User: Which sequence fits this backbone?
C-alpha cells in the first residue's frame, strides 16, 4: 500500500513542479521555446527566388551570380585579388547568443576568407580571417564567434559580411548561425534592460523590511493577546481578524490619501508602512505563544525580568517555527503584490518586480526565452527564502507532532 501512496505523491509533486522546471529550462534556450529550440538558423538560403534573395543578400564588389550546381542554387565568386563577397542582411539582430558561423564552400584552389559584422551605425568589425585550402567537394567551414570581443553594437547588428580572396572560382552555399545552448545571455539581457535590476532591488528592499516588521510587531501583539488580560481583549482580537475579510481594493483609497498627505507617494515608505503588521501574523503568533508553558513567564518574573525582556529573551526565541511560517508567507505575498505598488508608485525607478515583469512584456519584443528568464529571476528569491526557512518549518511540524 505504501509504494502506491508514494507513487501517487511523486506524481502530484511532479505535476505541481513541472511548470517551474519548464520555465527555468526555457530561460536557457537561445531562440524559440523549450520544445522548438532554434540552435541552428540559416540566414542565407540561395534556393529563394531572386527577388527575395536580392533583398537579403548584397554583393560586395562582385556581380551576384546564382547558378545551379548539383540540383542546388549556389553563389559563384570569380577569382579576385582583393576581398570580394556577400553582405547578408540581418535587420537589427542581437548576436550575443551566437556561437559560430557555418558556411558550405567548394573551391578549386586556395583562398583567404574573412568574416565580419556591421552594426546599425555602419561600423564594421571583422572577427575572423584565415586561409582555407582547396576543397573539390562541398565542405562545411565552422568559424567560432566571440561577441564579447567585438567593439561594435552587438545588440543591433545589420549585416554579416562574408568576403574572399580566391585564386580560382569559388562556390558558396548556405550560411548558418549556430547559437550557444544552453545560454545565460537571456538573464544578462533581462538584467541590463529596462531597469529590471532596479525592480528586483525595490522588491527586495520592500519585502525584507515588510518581513522584519511583521515578525517583530506581529509577535509583540500576539504576545500581548496570548499573555495579558485587558478590557475588550476578545472583541479587539475579533475585530483584527475581521479585517482579513476586507478586500485590498476597499482599503487602497484611504491608504493612498494617507500616503499622499504624508508626502510618501512613490517612496519605499509607501510600500512598507501599510504592510508592517498583518492580522494573519497576529493570529498565528498568538496561537503559537498560547501553547508555550506559562511557567516560563512566571520564572522570569521571579528573576525580576520585565515584560519586554520576557518577550524578547524567552518567548520570541521559542517561536522560530511560527516566525518561519510568518516570514515565508509575508515574503511571498509582498514579493508577488502587484496592486499596491501599482497605485502607490508613479515613476519607473520605484516599480517592483511584478510591475516590471508586466512592463517587460509590453516594452520588449515578445520571446519566450527572455520572458521565462525574467519570470525565473522574479521567482528565484521566493525559492531561496523557502529553502532558508525550510528546516524551521519542518522542525515546527515535528515538534507539534511530538507534543500531540
Assistant:
Amino acid at each position: 500500500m505504501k509504494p502506491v501512496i508514494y507513487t501517487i505523491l511523486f506524481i502530484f509533486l511532479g505535476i505541481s513542479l513541472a511548470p517551474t522546471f519548464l520555465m527555468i529550462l526555457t530561460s536557457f534556450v537561445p531562440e524559440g521555446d523549450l520544445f522548438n529550440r532554434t540552435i541552428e538558423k540559416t540566414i542565407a538560403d540561395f534556393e529563394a527566388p531572386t527577388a527575395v534573395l536580392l533583398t537579403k543578400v548584397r554583393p560586395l564588389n562582385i556581380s551576384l551570380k546564382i547558378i545551379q550546381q548539383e540540383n542546388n542554387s549556389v553563389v559563384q565568386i570569380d577569382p579576385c585579388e582583393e576581398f570580394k563577397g556577400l553582405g547578408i542582411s540581418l535587420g537589427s539582430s542581437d548576436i550575443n547568443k551566437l556561437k559560430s558561423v557555418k558556411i558550405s564552400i567548394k573551391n578549386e584552389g586556395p583562398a583567404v576568407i574573412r568574416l565580419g559584422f556591421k552594426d546599425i551605425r555602419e561600423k564594421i568589425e571583422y572577427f575572423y580571417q584565415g586561409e582555407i585550402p582547396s576543397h573539390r567537394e562541398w565542405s562545411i567551414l565552422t568559424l567560432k564567434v566571440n561577441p564579447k570581443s567585438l567593439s561594435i553594437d552587438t545588440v543591433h547588428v545589420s549585416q554579416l559580411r562574408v568576403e574572399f580572396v580566391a585564386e580560382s572560382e569559388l562556390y558558396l552555399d548556405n550560411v548558418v548561425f549556430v547559437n550557444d545552448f544552453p545560454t545565460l545571455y537571456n538573464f544578462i539581457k533581462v538584467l541590463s534592460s529596462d531597469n529590471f535590476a532596479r525592480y528586483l532591488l525595490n522588491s527586495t528592499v520592500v519585502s525584507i523590511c515588510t518581513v522584519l516588521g511583521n515578525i517583530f510587531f506581529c509577535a509583540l501583539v500576539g504576545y500581548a493577546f496570548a499573555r495579558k488580560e485587558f478590557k475588550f481583549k476578545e472583541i479587539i482580537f475579533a475585530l483584527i481578524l475581521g479585517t482579513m475579510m476586507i478586500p485590498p481594493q476597499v482599503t487602497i483609497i484611504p491608504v493612498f490619501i494617507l500616503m499622499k498627505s504624508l508626502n510618501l507617494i512613490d517612496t519605499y515608505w509607501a510600500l512598507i508602512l501599510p504592510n508592517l503588521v498583518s492580522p494573519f501574523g497576529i493570529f498565528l503568533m498568538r496561537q503559537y505563544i498560547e501553547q508555550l508553558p506559562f511557567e516560563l513567564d512566571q520564572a522570569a518574573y521571579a528573576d525580576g525580568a520585565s515584560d519586554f525582556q520576557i518577550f524578547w529573551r524567552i518567548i520570541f526565541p521559542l517561536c522560530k517555527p511560527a516566525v518561519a511560517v510568518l516570514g515565508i508567507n509575508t515574503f511571498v505575498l509582498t514579493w508577488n503584490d502587484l496592486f499596491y505598488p501599482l497605485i502607490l508608485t508613479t515613476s519607473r525607478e520605484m516599480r517592483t518586480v511584478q510591475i516590471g515583469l508586466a512592463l517587460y512584456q509590453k516594452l520588449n519584443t515578445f520571446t519566450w526565452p527572455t520572458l521565462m528568464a525574467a519570470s525565473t529571476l522574479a521567482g528565484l528569491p521566493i525559492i531561496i527564502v523557502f529553502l532558508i526557512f525550510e528546516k524551521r518549518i519542518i522542525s515546527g511540524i515535528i515538534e507539534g507532532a511530538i507534543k500531540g
